[in-house]
Model the fold of this input.
Amino acid sequence: NKNLLEPEPCYRIQGAIYNVANKYGKGLKEQIYQKALAEEFTKQGLKFEQQKHINIYSLDTGKSLGVYVPDFVIEDRVIIEIKSSNFTTRQDINQQHSYLKASIYEIGYLTNFGTPKLDIRRSIYTNDRKPFIALLRKATNIHESRIRD
Done:
């Protein structure tokens, strides 16, 4: 579907997550799932960075307020946060949404391997909804392909 945001890498990301869940089940530590996902992402041919520092920007001024360190950044487009707990909290969901809202990233996956059924939550917050993006573009001259309209 042409209307989907980043369909090809997202399809491969979800496949990697399901492969890890099917191989290892639930009950392991987050660190184990992270290492297993790194192996799967490599098998899927996805470019990724672990523990990449992502700038969080002021929604009003576009100035950097601090950093967020997700478990993965895939193809420099998608952030992934891994959990291994009995349930996914509203706080986890809200936190991911807030990071998307205040960063240049538009897609995030919150994945919890510890829930009774694998919990994969895909969130989208497009850059056209972020008022600071225009300020950021002007201040830093970030290439158009990096910040989508």
